[in-house]
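Q: what sequence does this backbone want?
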């Protein structure tokens, strides 16, 4: 399963472990019981666990995703991963992150380039986030300027490589925040749900909201009952 995001990005399901029934049986093992098929009683148990904040059963189901996103999205995401290990009630967040590195690879760089109709204004009453869309004419101007800036960086990057400069230093010429990077993110269902709660909010950066919506589509397919209950709390 692969869902395209932004102009060149995507979220791809690599692997997963478990189902809604995994959550149920992780909880029922306390009483040496097990369900073979998801019943109405099991659904009520998932609802109870989510409502009462009994989090450990939700950490026995896992998703593994490959994500291709601009660096500005990846670094905001990474701050969440680091911080999620400390939010109340999780214990161990059960997450792993492995990212491609331009110390080792020199594949053709790709950059996020908003179209003329995607540039947003600064918010009126906040130091972060964004406001409404600006005019297409002004947006088109800044799309062109970003394209020119990116092309200049690419030219200098390629010239440095051609002159024998090592990749880990040549990458300094690449415009950073729009540069696409690729990583594997493995997370427990609880941790993924917490990410979605945070990044589907209206005040989250729009670009990371788009990635969160893609992940929501994937996890709802795999864990429909559990995701609905965790995100409704």
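A:
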């Amino acid at each position: 399963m692969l869902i395209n995001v932004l102009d060149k990005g995507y979220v791809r399901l690599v692997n997963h472990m478990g189902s809604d029934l995994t959550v149920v049986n992780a909880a029922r093992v306390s009483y040496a019981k097990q369900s073979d098929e998801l019943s109405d009683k099991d659904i009520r148990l998932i609802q109870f666990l989510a409502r009462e904040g009994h989090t450990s059963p939700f950490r026995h189901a896992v998703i593994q995703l490959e994500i291709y996103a601009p660096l500005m999205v990846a670094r905001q995401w990474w701050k969440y991963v680091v911080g999620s290990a400390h939010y109340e009630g999780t214990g161990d967040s059960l997450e792993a992150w492995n990212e491609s590195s331009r110390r080792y690879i020199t594949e053709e760089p790709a950059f996020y380039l908003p179209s003329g109709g995607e540039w947003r204004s600064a918010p009126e009453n906040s130091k972060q986030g964004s406001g409404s869309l600006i005019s297409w004419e002004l947006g088109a101007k800044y799309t062109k300027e970003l394209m020119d800036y990116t092309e200049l960086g690419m030219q200098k990057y390629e010239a440095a490589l051609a002159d024998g400069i090592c990749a880990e230093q040549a990458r300094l010429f690449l415009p950073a925040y729009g540069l696409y990077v690729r990583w594997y993110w493995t997370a427990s269902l609880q941790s993924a749900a917490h990410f979605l709660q945070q990044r589907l909010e209206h005040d989250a950066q729009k670009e990371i909201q788009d990635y969160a919506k893609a992940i929501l589509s994937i996890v709802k397919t795999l864990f429909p009952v559990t995701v609905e209950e965790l995100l409704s709390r």
